[in-house]
Amino acid sequence: MIAQGSFSQTIEDCYVDMPDILNPTLSRQNRLELVGYHKAKQSDSVVNRFGNQAYLVSLDSLGKRIVVKNSSSSRFEMKVLSLDENVKVISIIRTICAPVCLSSVEFYDTAWNAIPVQFTMPKAIDWVNESALPKDQVDVQWIKNNLDIGFVSLTFTNQGQMIQATNNTLDFFSEADRKLISPFMNNSPILFKLSGRVWVRN
Q1: Distance of alpha carbon 36 from the chain centroid
Q2: Which pLDDT tens digit goes with each residue over 120-165?
Q3: 3-class DSSP assignment, residue 140
Q4: DSSP secondary-structure letter at 40?
Q5: DSSP 114
Q6: Could you report how far apart the first and last alpha carbons of the chain are, in Å?
Q7: Do residues 26 and 47 touch, judged by C-beta distance below 8 A?
Q8: Residue 131 is part of which domain span?
Q9: In terms of Cα–Cα distance, which of 178, 108, 167, 171 is closest to 143?
Q10: Under 8 Å between Cβ of 57 and 76
Q11: SS3 call for 22
Q12: Are 118 and 68 in contact (CB under 8 A)?
């Protein structure tokens, strides 16, 4: 059941009060200290549950977005979005770089129940104009097979209700394969906007 009506919680409150299972690297106390230090213009870092540094990268109270580097290889983003005037959705992006960066995205109502907002993760092939591939120069099927999956990282844009997708798949290939494929790939991020309960390519 999606919570309706007025929702006045700040992004700071959402971040601090969310269930620990959604962000097990940092305890509630860790999150509280991280936000408190940032507001007091003190340190923007705390020690996470595994003894490593975590950093508050960005906090936009007006835009209801927070970005935290949970560890040297993981990043956590949260943003409050509107499905309509009376329905809010708390959106979370998790990015792991091990070493190639790969993201996932989840959506929750204001009571922290997972909700079905549709986002289809793009594949690496989405950055290639297949019709423009020179069939006399490259093995098109080989390229399509290798790019059918991909390492894609996501981030919420600062303005509006959009997600930016960046293709990191070339970082996974050998140098030789990278040289072969890279001329046919567009390096620009792909933008998705929220339309109803579906994310569509902008």
Answers
A1: 24
A2: 999 999 998 877 778 777 788 888 888 888 899 999 998 899 999 9
A3: helix
A4: T
A5: B
A6: 29
A7: no
A8: 118-202
A9: 178
A10: no
A11: helix
A12: no
Q: Mapping DSSP to helix (H, G, I), strand (E, B) and coil, where does residue 10 land?
A: coil
Q: Are 103 and 142 within one domain? A: no
Residues 130, 171: Cα–Cα separation, whole Å: 21
Question: Domain tally for the chain?
Answer: 2
Q: Which residues of the chain have pLDDT under 70?
A: 1-8
Clarify whether residues 122 and 104 are in a common domain.
no
Strands (E), 39-189: 45-47, 53-60, 65-71, 74-84, 87-97, 101-108, 152-156, 162-167
Domain identity same for 87 and 164: no
Count how many residues are written for the chain: 202
Strand partners, 198: 118, 195
Give the integer Cα–Cα distance in Å for 175 and 178: 5
Q: How does DSSP classify residue 4?
A: B
